[in-house]
Write a structure and sequence with these properties.
Layout: H1 16-37, H2 42-69, H3 75-79
């Protein structure tokens, strides 16, 4: 049995919108772990993974826009 991942202040970046999105992504990861641990059907696992993929894509785009607006040199690495 794989245990849940608990949010801690160590994960905070200090940017409320980004931190909220990170928390949401972590919660979806935990939903997947719970589904695996509870023996959910493959269709349910696929549904959760699809949600995780969509959230991750949207989050990455939002982060890259923020980095670009701020002229952050980390944008190139983030895109890679």
């Amino acid at each position: 049995m794989t245990s849940r991942i608990e949010w801690t202040d160590e994960f905070k970046l200090g940017l409320p919108v980004i931190d909220a999105e990170h928390r949401e992504l972590l919660e979806v990861c935990n939903q997947f772990l719970d589904a695996v641990n509870n023996g959910q059907a493959v269709a349910e696992l696929a549904r959760i993974l699809e949600k995780m993929i969509l959230l991750t894509r949207a989050h990455s785009v939002a982060e890259e826009r923020m980095l670009d607006r701020n002229g952050d040199p980390g944008l190139v690495v983030h895109k890679a």
